[in-house]
Amino acid sequence: MERSTLVARGIKKSFGTQADAPVLKEITVSFTQGMSYAIMGVSGTGKSTLMHLLAGLDTPSAGTVFFNEQNVHKMSVQEQASFLRSSVGLLFQLPYLIKELSVCENVMLPALIAGGSQANSLKKAQHLLECVGLTQKADARPGSLSGGQQQRVALARALINEPAFLLADEPTGNLDERTGAEMVDLLLRLQREWQMGLIISTHDVHVAERMEHRYRLHDGMLFDEVMVREKEASEVVLTR
Ligand SMILES: Nc1ncnc2c1ncn2[C@@H]1O[C@H](COP(=O)(O)OP(=O)(O)OP(=O)(O)O)[C@@H](O)[C@H]1O
Ligand SMILES: [Mg+2]
Fold first, then answer.
1. Residue 29 neighbours by CB distance under 10 Å
2. Of 1, 89, 128, 227, which is least packed with CB atoms within 10 Å of its CB?
3. Which run of H or of E encompasses 107?
4. How confident is the prediction along the chain (240 residues), in pLDDT tens digits per residue?
5. Quick check: 37 and 31 in contact, CB under 8 A?
6. Cα–Cα distance between 169 and 93 in angstroms, integer?
7. Which atom of ligand 1 is closest in space to residue 50's alpha carbon?
8. Residue 47 C-alpha to ligand 1 middle, in angstroms?
9. Nearest ligand to the C-alpha of residue 13?
């Protein structure tokens, strides 16, 4: 299988005037399909900002994001729509389901928008609901489901077009510890089975530790977590 890549090169992002410190200063990082990654960092360090840039939902002040060497900010409208539909799946802290539609219709929607037939989209949605353990809830309204169940519906919806990467921005942030851990189990199981790239932002060190690669956002820059630990260890030695 040819593995897709998602690469940020020299990303900077400021929101305010030039006098305001940029949220992201100089981020260069490369993600490969089939691997799992955590982006850690305290609140306000720019995790969501970075995830939005990687998904091409926002444009950087400088630098570029490439999907398979293609600049995601210079895609045509059609190319960008196709990238968002089928190359990256997005999962947020809240499920953002459409409450007037059934669970199954919510999951089907991106497949229908991508031009899939009703019958094929239904078949895929039913399979995904089985994967996330919600077959029994297919005809229910999202409002009648628990928070954890709704987040699993959002996951099924994010995966229906078989994306190369799943970008999950604090997907367990709103769940209790046990439900959050189950969500991570499910994310990792599907990531391995489908050989997706999983990029998950989190405050939670227990979630991060389950990913193959870990980065920490701090002061607008991204640090390899292994290097951060080595640096902390050397500082401990130096201060003794
Ligand atoms: N659209 C925007 N306009 C202005 N400032 C913004 C915008 N989006 C984010 N910011 C600022 O950028 C900084 C980083 O925000 P971001 O949401 O990326 O942090 P985060 O690490 O995801 O935090 P959290 O863990 O609380 O979700 C914050 O100071 C925030 O106020
Ligand atoms: Mg955030």
1. 18
2. 1
3. helix 103-113
4. 789 999 999 999 999 776 678 999 999 999 999 999 999 999 999 999 999 999 988 999 999 999 998 898 888 888 888 888 789 999 998 999 999 999 999 999 999 998 999 999 999 999 999 999 999 999 999 999 999 999 999 999 999 999 999 999 999 988 888 999 999 999 999 999 999 999 999 989 999 999 999 999 999 999 998 766 666 666 666 555
5. yes
6. 6
7. 18
8. 8
9. 1
Q: 1-87+163-240 has which fold?
A: Rossmann fold (3.40.50)
Cα separation, 216 vs 46, whole angstroms: 11
Please name the residue whose Cα sits nearest to atom 24 of ligand 1: 43
- Global pTM reads 0.92
CB of 239 shorter than 6 A to ligand 1: no
CA–centroid distance, 46 to ligand 1, in Å, is 5
Nearest protein Cα to ligand 1, atom 17: 48
The CATH 3.40.50.300 portion of the chain extends over 1-87+163-240
Atom number in ligand 1 closest to CA 16: 4
